[in-house]
């Protein structure tokens, strides 16, 4: 099942750069692992923002929630979830 | 270059069903042609809405505008455009 | 899978009462059939509004979209969908 | 009498984890006690959010206010209340 | 139980004055009858608007909904309901 | 002259409970004194919120501003003022 | 007593120009009469809008409501009222 | 040229009263000097708010910006600027 | 003096194409004439919208209002005006 | 390709003036260098705000993102990006 998720990141200005970089590195590995599993189907940066638009393909709402709650940057994010369907005009088989 | 586009369709309640269906058929063909060209990369239905979330991959803002303005349903749509970038954590080569 | 759906109904002021009542009767039967199937788990009226808050329990986003699009009042509704999960503090087994 | 309540929790980033966990444990017990009494009828997590959608069945606005004000997480919550009615199309006897 | 209700009236510009006046007269009688019963406790005009702020004292959400739905101007109104409680600092006995 | 005032209180989380209670006690006395004078006509708690809806009956905008600015909780409040009139359908003599 | 009033005018596109001009002429006379009486203290056009910002100096909320409701363009306006006070830093005696 | 400016002041709760009073005194002198020069034509307090509505009469956008940026309370203000014109119905010669 | 103006055009769906084209042709000539005079400094299409972002360089708010009110599409536009200044970091002499 | 970017700057009130001035000086040099390269085509101050409206002419969304992310004031800014096209009515050759 497909979901669009928008994540806006606000790291506190007073977080030491070292700690921020550490969290970001863990975040990147976490995201790439899920991408390899096919659960985090797409991730794009929003131009000019510390934000991304992502497409998830998961078994259930529960799985999506568990993934999002596990994000290392979760405490510093604002997250919006939107349920998606295959579009009747889509020609890609794998965009169901 | 990548853009996310959200299209919300509001066909007037008094448009004859025949005319509406005709426009939708042309719209579908128009969309699928652009999908085959690789310019309209993804299209998903928003659950519960007569709306879609699409990803376009175009040469320029001008090309995107021309494509959108040419949509048969354009006069009945509200459209929002958001510029996207490849995300530094993305692992898909073709999601640049 | 659980979803909250809010439906706000705006029937045009110039629709003949007879036609409106007919649509509402079909809507009621449609809703009650889905309630009996366990897919439309709850439906409450919002006090003072021609609106309801409903909880759906469906197999997928696709099933939810098909149900909503099939509502006889669909052309006259504004619909908002929100994905829900079982809450870790919930004690009801059937509220998963 | 039925009410929908949405609770969005924002625990300050600098609250020690131990204190946060303690409050959450008391919150859970408080919620489950009210669920057992039948006053807190439903509680669902909003996917991707530290938020819930709950349905309360109380004697009066006063009882609802007392319950909400007594939430251990109350100082860290944004709360929205919406009065609900039994819906004329509902088939569940206990959803009045 | 107390509720604040805000009603914003938008009568269509093309409704004949005679019909509008007739509806308003019935509305006035309807409101005054409920005021005499003590259910419609207060009604104030919002300065400069075709809107009112009212306080209702009813047995239940259901009773409030029935009253509002019965308003002759109901099809032309936007209505917002807000549950109220007696305030701990209030000194009026009858403002419970 | 009548005004509706909505007050939303946000006491900083780090204010010592003792200080907060002291301010609230002075606030209560301040409010009750004005209620006895007939200037603060009504005060209701908004269900689930640390907020109130109040009706003031004052000589002028100046008097209302002076009263509001004198509230002990004023530095911690968000305040909205709305001018009201006697409603042509009102039957209470003292609601002018 | 002083009030700021913002008026946004939306004359229906299908109103005959003759009728619109007639209403506007009556509106102008109505406004200028109140300006001469000192009740409509200021009126400015908002640049680029069919809107004005006005300052009224009236005896009461009631008087303001009566004036606004009497505007010939009232059925085609959106109106916002904001209560004002003399500012402690003002040096103009007549801006009280 | 005329502009309406709305200024909303938010002095941090932890600023020492002495410092706040000092800034306010300089602000008052600054404002009154500009009032005497005829550049700050009007200033009104918004009832119940630490906010003002002002009318400026300046040579250019640049002059307005310089004046606003020079306000002693500028770092603690939210400012909104709206360009105004003489209204065709205005009868005051000096309200051009 | 510089102003940014955003114009969003909504031509009614039932306006005959011929009439719409005629208005657009006059609009184009009107705009180009002002561009040649240097008063309409820039005009850009917003991608995907029937909207433009323009920069005007005028003598006064009055001149801007007269220009905007004279737009052939003015009755079908929503217009927003924002006063601009030369930026202290700008290097273009003609962007003052 | 053209983009409008709005930047709203919020430097924390407790940043030492020396540090703030240093950042601003680097920001100015950074901006002027990009202006000389023709990538940052225009920059205007919004009257009364610590904000600017800028027009960028870049090769791609990626280039725009890199430029914006490199702004010395980036951590203290809110940024909005809007894709622009040459307007069919534009007469300036270099405004494509």
From TrEMBL, chains A, B, C, D, E, F, G, H, I, J:
Keyword Cell cycle attributed: no
Domain Muconolactone isomerase: 1-89
Reaction equation(s) it catalyzes: (S)-muconolactone = (4,5-dihydro-5-oxofuran-2-yl)-acetate
Keywords assigned by UniProt, alphabetized: Aromatic hydrocarbons catabolism, Isomerase
Xref: SUPFAM superfamilies: Dimeric alpha+beta barrel
This protein's pathway: Aromatic compound metabolism; beta-ketoadipate pathway; 5-oxo-4,5-dihydro-2-furylacetate from catechol: step 3/3
Enzyme Commission designation: 5.3.3.4
One GO MF term attached to the UniProt entry: muconolactone delta-isomerase activity
UniProt record, GO biological process: beta-ketoadipate pathway
Subunit organization: Homodecamer.
Family: Belongs to the muconolactone Delta-isomerase family.
Protein name: Muconolactone Delta-isomerase
Organism: Acinetobacter vivianii
Lineage: Bacteria, Pseudomonadati, Pseudomonadota, Gammaproteobacteria, Moraxellales
């Amino acid at each position: 099942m497909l979901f669009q998720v928008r994540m806006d990141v606000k790291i506190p200005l007073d977080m030491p750069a070292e700690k921020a970089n550490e969290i970001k590195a863990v975040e990147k590995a976490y995201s790439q692992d899920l991408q390899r599993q096919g659960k985090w189907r797409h991730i794009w940066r929003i131009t000019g923002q510390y934000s991304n638009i992502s497409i998830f393909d998961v078994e259930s709402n529960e799985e999506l929630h568990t993934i999002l709650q596990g994000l290392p940057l979760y405490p510093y994010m604002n997250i919006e979830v939107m349920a998606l369907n295959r579009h009747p005009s889509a020609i890609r088989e794998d965009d169901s």
